[in-house]
Structures are given as structure tokens and as C-alpha cells.
Design goal:
The chain is α/β, with parallel strands linked by helices. It contains 14 helices and 9 strands. The protein has a 9-stranded mixed sheet with strand order 1-9-8-7-6-5-4-2-3, with helices on both faces. The longest helix has 20 residues. Bound molecules: ligand NPW and adenosine-5'-diphosphate (ADP).
Length: 297
């Protein structure tokens, strides 16, 4: 690992401080509402998985405002969701979307969501919206996706007088990111001014403010379709429940992101018990995982 002294391995004791337990005075709004804009005609399942995971993480409400055909599937699995827009405390955007088709279908509505200034998770087909988003952003790329984001960033900035090229060199390939994930997570966070959660068997969380966290020991059974969509839901829910902390100090974003990765990894371990899992198993294991974390197990 690059500069391993700078990286703090996240653990249950630290994560527990970022989990919010509802109090007697709470209601669904005070607990936090997550807006979710995910899924597409081609990838509706990603929306179902992310919403399931968010609700299992313990958020006050999920407002799902993605494509209406996808909304029917999400509702069939989770009738608790609210399918109309309204105030939210955090956004999860982009899982199950592709940037090329996204603009045709959803451009205006997405722009509105990213402009609201609440903490926002940008995943998969919305990663490039980091250039337009207001407020605190967490990007959740895998290696290929980070290579694409950095290439797009380079195109934009490089055309503005070659400044980014001079400062950062040519954008990396996915193979180069895989070879040095710690380095590229940090560079991306600095270059994009966002928290970068770079997924992999070791997941790196780098904040633009210098935060550096790792989560290791993630079960490799997680290398199966849709588990990244589940992670997005967990993260979105934790951001919504911690919205007032983030409003006071945006540095809270990185530890919350690390907590989401740890919850995801521990839920995978609980669901797996050493055997294969599917993404929905991970989402379903989240409540017992959080209970065990709160109990100090
Ligand atoms: N249930 C759902 O709704 C799910 C929805 N999902 C959603 O899907 C969207 C796309 O996300 P992603 O990460 O899968 O795609 P992406 O980064 O474009 O990588 C494509 C690369 O993979 C490669 N490749 C393809 N097949 C290969 C093979 N057999 N063996 C080897 N390589 C293979 C391919 O290479 P090529 O075939 O071009 O050589 C290309 O390089 C995203 O929105 C996500 O949220 C997922 O979460 C899954 C569950
Ligand atoms: N070999 C592995 N070992 C442990 N965890 C992995 C491994 N490969 C992938 N993961 C984890 O699985 C998830 C996959 O996410 P992602 O690549 O976005 O897939 P998808 O788009 O299918 O949801 C991430 O949380 C990643 O950290």
C-alpha cells in the first residue's frame, strides 16, 4: 500500500460513532430522508438493490424519483418508498445508469437534484456529474469507472490551458489504478474536490481534506453483480441520517463513507458464512450487522 502510514484502517469501534440510533422524539423526517435517482430501462435491478439496502440501513424515508417504469419494480419490492419528489437530506444518484443514455432521459431532473447542495453519492452513470454537483459529494467508482472519470476531467481541464495535465500528468488507465489504488484515490479526491470511495478487495476512502481510510478483509464473495449498488444504498442512508453533522462539518463525509464500507463488508460476511452470496443477501443482512456493531460485537 502506498504511504501506508497515512492510511487508517477503519474498525467497528470507530464506525459505531457514526451510526445513528433513533430517539423517542424522532420522526421519519428528523431521522433523515434519502432521495434516490437510480436504475434505468436496461438496469432496473440496481434501483431495487440500492433502495432495499438504504431502507435496511435505517433511514426515515426514501423518496425514489427515478424512471417511472423502474419505480413500479422498486415499489413491488419496497412499498415503503415514496414515489414523489420533495425535501431530502441526501441523494443517491446513478447506480444502474449509463452517462451516455442518462442525459437523453433524465437530464433536467438530475441537474435539479445535484444542484440542491445536500450530501450526494454519485455512482456508476452519474460519476461525471461531480463537475456540476453542489455540496459535498462522495464518488463510488470501481477502477474502470475512476479511469473514465479522470479521463473526462482531463479532457475538460486540459482544454482549459493544459493546467490539469501540467499538475497531474496524463490520466491513468484502469490497470494503472488497479496497480496503485491508494495513489489514485488520493489524486482523484484532490483533483475533483470530492470524497472518493475506490471499491475493491481493499477499499480506499480519500477525502479532499486529507482524510485517508481503508477497509480491508472484505470477503471476495462480494465480487458479484449488484453488490456495489447495495453499497450505494447503505452510504446514502448513512449520509441522510448524519445530515446535520455534515452540515456543520463536511469532514464528516469520509468517516461516514468508511463506515458504510465496513457495514457492507460485515453484512457480506454475515450473509456468506463462508459460502456464496447474492447482492440482496447483503442488503438483508444489514439490520443484524448494525445491531451487532452497536452492541460492540
Ligand atoms: N442488477 C443490476 O441492475 C445491475 C446493474 N449494474 C449496473 O450496470 C452498469 C454497468 O456497470 P459495470 O461496472 O458492470 O460496467 P462497466 O464499468 O461499463 O464495465 C463494463 C466492462 O466490463 C467488461 N466485461 C463485460 N462482460 C465481461 C466478461 N464476461 N468478461 C470480462 N469482461 C467483461 C467490458 O469489457 P468488453 O466486453 O467491452 O471487452 C467492459 O470493459 C452500472 O450502471 C451498474 O450500476 C451492475 O451493478 C450489475 C447489477
Ligand atoms: N475480489 C473482491 N474482494 C472483495 N470485495 C470485492 C471484490 N471485488 C469486488 N468487491 C466489492 O464488491 C462491490 C462491487 O461493486 P461494483 O464493482 O460497483 O459492482 P456492481 O456494479 O455489479 O454493483 C464493491 O463493494 C467492491 O469493493
Amino acid at each position: 500500500m502506498e504511504n501506508s502510514a497515512e492510511w487508517l484502517e477503519w474498525d467497528v469501534a470507530r464506525a459505531r460513532e457514526w451510526l445513528v440510533v433513533p430517539r423517542p422524539g424522532d420522526d421519519k423526517y428528523s431521522r433523515g430522508v434519502l432521495g434516490v435517482f437510480t436504475g434505468s430501462h436496461d438496469y432496473p435491478g440496481a434501483a431495487v438493490l440500492g433502495v432495499e439496502a438504504a431502507m435496511r440501513t435505517g433511514v426515515g424515508m426514501v423518496r425514489y424519483t427515478g424512471p417511472s417504469s423502474v419505480r413500479q419494480l422498486v415499489l413491488a419490492r419496497r412499498p415503503e418508498i415514496v414515489g414523489v419528489g420533495g425535501r431530502v437530506q441526501a441523494w443517491l444518484i446513478g447506480s444502474g445508469m449509463t452517462s451516455s443514455r442518462r442525459t437523453l432521459i433524465l437530464g433536467g431532473e438530475l441537474a435539479q437534484a445535484t444542484a440542491q447542495g445536500v450530501p450526494t453519492v454519485l455512482d456508476a452513470g452519474a460519476l461525471d456529474l461531480v463537475h456540476e454537483a453542489r455540496g459535498s459529494v462522495v464518488l463510488t467508482p470501481h477502477y474502470r469507472e475512476l479511469a473514465e472519470v479522470l479521463a473526462e476531467t482531463d479532457r475538460r481541464a486540459g482544454h482549459a490551458a493544459g493546467k490539469a495535465r501540467a499538475e497531474h500528468g496524463s490520466p491513468p488507465t484502469a490497470a494503472e489504478i488497479a496497480a496503485r489504488p491508494a495513489l489514485w484515490a488520493v489524486r482523484a479526491a484532490e483533483q475533483l474536490g470530492a470524497t472518493v470511495l475506490l471499491k475493491g478487495s481493499v477499499t480506499y476512502i480519500a477525502g479532499p481534506d486529507g482524510a485517508r481510510f481503508t477497509v480491508s478483509g472484505i470477503p471476495s464473495w462480494l465480487a458479484t453483480a449488484g453488490t456495489g449498488d447495495v453499497l450505494g444504498g447503505i452510504l446514502g442512508a448513512l449520509l441522510a441520517t448524519r445530515h446535520s453533522t455534515i452540515a456543520q462539518d463536511a469532514a464528516a463525509i469520509a468517516p461516514i463513507a468508511a463506515t458504510a464500507v465496513l457495514v457492507h463488508a460485515l453484512a457480506a460476511r454475515r450473509a456468506s458464512q463462508g459460502g456464496p452470496i447474492v447482492a440482496l443477501d447483503v442488503a438483508e443482512a444489514v439490520p443484524a450487522t448494525i445491531a451487532a456493531m452497536l452492541a460492540g460485537d
